[in-house]
Design goal:
This protein has helices spanning 22-39, 47-54, 62-87, 133-145, 147-154, 223-232, 238-245, and strands at 10-16, 91-101, 109-114, 161-170, 178-181, 193-201, 253-257, 261-262. It is α+β, with helices and mostly antiparallel strands and 268 residues long. Strands 1, 2, 3, 4, 5, 6, 7 and 8 form an eight-stranded mixed beta sheet that branches. Helix 1 (22-39) packs antiparallel against helix 3 and helix 1 runs parallel beside helix 4. The chain starts with 9 loop residues before the first strand and ends in a 6-residue tail after the last strand. Residues 215-247 have low confidence and may be disordered.
Length: 268
């Protein structure tokens, strides 16, 4: 029996103008997932239209409506739990892996995203100072200007399963949503495209933000939040950077989301 053909991985470097926070990083990854699902024809319409469709049953049969709502629910769950992982101090998320195919071992398309080691804490830095808009524009500009990337996007793919994984080092290996895959390794034998996005910051000068001078909104339910946030501001990226620097001696493991996004077309 012939083995699968080894396909060379295409690398696309993405230079970010704005430092990523845990919130903006989560936003960036989820927007990328939505883009991939639409471009690879795993959802019949854009995500924004799918949202409107999920809120209304006009002109859509019950089966298509149920599938659309299930897809929206999967994306919402992934977004929520990914944000939790990125915010967790004991967790160092190194890479994100998105695989499309019948099984995770036989991908027809796969995309690996290497995260920058310096990700600011979303609890210490504020959206007003670190908007996800610039990083998202940097990402979309890089992938749309890459001819090879766009050629890979143009290749048709029948509706199939989309698996979401993350590679991290975590002292607490128990997760309600991400299941450990201790023996999993990304294979270079695939039937389709293999892409690799490498995210990095342009310079360290942009770390000089004034979040610590911003007055936090007082929260009745968590009075300690406003007291801790300013003092932790400068340590927001250093602790994460230390974790990544020690990555050679650390054990990074792949975790797969419990939810699998199932591609679909509208039924008539």
């Amino acid at each position: 029996m012939l083995g699968r053909k080894k396909i060379e991985e295409l690398e696309v470097c993405v230079k970010l103008d704005e430092p990523l926070t845990s919130d903006s990083c989560c936003k960036l990854i989820l927007e990328l997932v939505k883009y991939l699902l639409y471009q690879k024809q795993q959802i019949p319409v854009s995500y924004e239209y799918l949202l409107r469709l999920g809120a209304s049953s006009v002109g859509v049969n019950d089966r298509s409506l149920a599938t659309a709502r299930a897809t929206l629910s999967c994306l919402e769950n992934i977004s929520e739990h990914l944000n939790t992982e990125l915010c967790c101090e004991s967790s160092a998320v190194k890479e994100i892996f998105i695989s499309m195919g019948a099984t995770i071992l036989a991908p027809k398309f796969c995309l690996r995203v290497s995260l920058p080691p310096e990700i600011l804490s979303g609890q210490c830095h504020f959206k007003q100072q670190h908007s996800p808009r610039k990083p998202l524009l940097n990402l979309m500009r890089s992938i749309t200007e890459s001819v090879d990337f766009q050629e890979a996007m143009a290749l048709p793919l029948m509706p199939t399963n989309t698996f979401f994984l993350l590679q991290k080092r975590d002292c607490n290996k128990v997760s309600e949503f991400f299941v450990p895959k201790p023996r999993y390794a990304i294979t270079n034998a695939t039937a389709g495209s293999r892409l690799h996005l490498k995210l990095s910051h342009k310079s360290h000068e942009m770390w000089n933000c004034n979040c610590k001078n911003t007055v936090s909104v007082y929260r009745d339910r968590d009075a300690s939040y406003s007291e801790l946030a300013p003092s932790q501001n400068t340590a927001g990226h250093r602790s994460t950077e230390k974790i990544f620097e020690g990555g050679q001696d650390s054990i990074y493991q792949w975790y797969q989301s419990r939810d699998i996004i199932k591609g679909f077309k509208f039924s008539r």
